[in-house]
Amino acid sequence: MRSKKILVATLGVMPVILACGAKTSQIDPTAYPITPLDQVKVEIPDACRLAYENAVPKVAVVDFANNSTFDLANAIQTASAGTESRKYVRGGAWGVGVVGPGVIGVGGVSAGASKRDWRTQSETISRQINAKIGESVAEAVVSEVASIGGMKVYTRRDLQKVLEEQKLQMSGLIDPNTAVQIGQLAGVKYIITGAVNNVNLKWVSLEEAKGAAKGLFGTWGSVLAAGAATQEGWNVIVDVVIKVIDTETGEVVLSKTVSGREVMGKTPQFSYDSIIGGIKKAVAEAVEDIRPEISKLFPLRGYIIQLRTAPDKSKRYALINVGAQQGVKSGQEFYVIDFQAVQDPISGRTTCDQVKLPVSLVVSNQIQTDKAWAVLEGDKAQIMRVKLGQIVERKPLEGGSGLKKLF
């Protein structure tokens, strides 16, 4: 009973830890008027106008290679049923009893000869299982990238449809060489692919689980280690390498290995189907770790379309022209960018200098399909520098949390 109380107490602190850093603001933007300062528009130098041509990059996700040993398999299942017939000789009289599987004997013990006859029927079912792990990774990546926003995402099926219209076929896995050709034909700028390099099924003891909690969270880990019993048992650990290829140059612009884990439990034996299911869940957890790099490589941009300021100028709200459809969520933070034209003193060439103001836009609870209200945070003098039309850029997102991976 004592261990259960510790576990409940430990899990009770987890929402508190998760809540740290949550910055969602509940606001009413109409509470503040639109002042003359809120109507000042940014002046855009000619050299910086291209920054407003926010072309959404086209990104295709194709199947991943499966370098693990979990792929095609023949699953054989045998079911047996037995029938037992006993004959007893008792003073010249015969008695016959028929029992089902697992039942021992019929009637009482009798002196005399006994004969036993077993008849067994067995049925064997054989079926081939295709794990399709490479396809599962691609599906998980599509889901993750689409939720990030800021990109137009295509699947392998979408690419194949485009190529078929041109009487072409896409076969096999894609490498940097074929990515250039396919990207030019299908009109996509980037292709995301990679490989499942390792799948490890191992038993994790209670001591190992406690050690992992302490290693991840330090002082808090000692508290959380009390709940580590939930991690004891068979664990599936998956390593996936994810690559982003620029189809114009064939350059690999991003390559990262991510890992995910799924606790299968303490059952001594698992079916192949259940192991594959665990692998796919671990993959879905693993791909969350590409979120920071993908959101930085393909930053979501928009601009300010309305401002509202408190009468004492202590607070300002900004309405931006990106919303839920572009993956904007409460608590996300945006940079506010100012521009200046800079002339090279040697060449005389004028270029655009983009400066991030020392403020932060934190998305509130007011999110619509194509727009969202955010709270301007920073020094009072700095937030008053923000103007209509200034570009906003979402800060890189966080990946999967260590706490989630542990529990």
From TrEMBL:
Alphabetic keyword roster: Signal
Gene3D superfamilies: ABC-type transport auxiliary lipoprotein component (3.40.50.10610)
Signal peptide coordinates: 1-22
Any GO CC annotation of this UniProt entry: outer membrane-bounded periplasmic space
Annotated TM spans: none
Domain of life: Bacteria
Name of the featured protein: Curli production assembly/transport component CsgG
Pfam families: CsgG
UniProt-listed InterPro entries: Curli_assmbl/transp-comp_CsgG (IPR005534)
Organism for this UniProt entry: Hydrogenivirga caldilitoris
